[in-house]
């Protein structure tokens, strides 16, 4: 009888400790902080320089999202962006992705001002595509949640322009 209870106890301890180990392992894999809520399945680069390097290397366009944490328009766009499967898939498969909460020194990324949210595309040839604009003439590179279909079209355009121009 003693043997059985010892065996049961050690099996119980093994079960508990392996569950604990799994819980700790899960804990360690922190959510991908670079996504900042724009899509955790997407691989994000950390800096504009890294983005340019990866774009050139992979021959994929770089998509730069300028946003701020306390901007309600950014939050609304982020939610729509993160919930859209087509965008998430295209972003992960066909683009180098960067979201920034500060301005870069590259003035080409703010051709009409430093407002947020602002989404711009950079070609693998490292040319900022000022010709891929949103729907608003006063803020050419801004998008609102209802503009998601338009943003998808612009993502496709960014991909198409590479193939035809390079």
TrEMBL record:
Q: Which GO terms describe its molecular function?
A: dystroglycan binding
Q: Which residues form the signal peptide?
A: 1-23
Task: Give the CC-aspect GO terms.
Answer: endoplasmic reticulum
Keywords recorded for this protein, A-Z: Signal
Does the record's keyword annotation contain Signal? yes
Does this entry carry the keyword Transcription regulation?
no
Family, according to the entry, reads as follows:
Belongs to the AGR family.
Q: What is this protein called?
A: AGR3 protein
């Amino acid at each position: 009888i003693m043997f059985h209870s010892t065996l049961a106890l050690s099996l119980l301890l093994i079960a508990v400790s392996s569950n604990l180990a799994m819980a700790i392992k899960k804990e360690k894999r922190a959510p991908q902080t670079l996504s900042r809520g724009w899509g955790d399945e997407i691989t994000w680069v950390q800096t504009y320089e890294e983005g340019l390097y990866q774009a050139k290397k992979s021959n994929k366009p770089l998509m730069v999202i300028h946003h701020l944490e306390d901007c309600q328009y950014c939050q609304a766009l982020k939610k729509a962006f993160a919930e859209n499967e087509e965008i998430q898939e295209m972003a992960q498969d066909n683009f180098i992705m960067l979201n920034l909460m500060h301005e870069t020194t590259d003035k080409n990324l703010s051709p009409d001002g430093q407002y947020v949210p602002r989404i711009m595309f950079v070609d693998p040839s490292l040319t900022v595509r000022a010709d891929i604009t949103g729907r608003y003439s006063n803020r050419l590179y801004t998008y609102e949640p209802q503009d998601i279909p338009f943003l998808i079209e612009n993502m496709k355009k960014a991909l198409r322009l590479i193939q035809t121009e390079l």
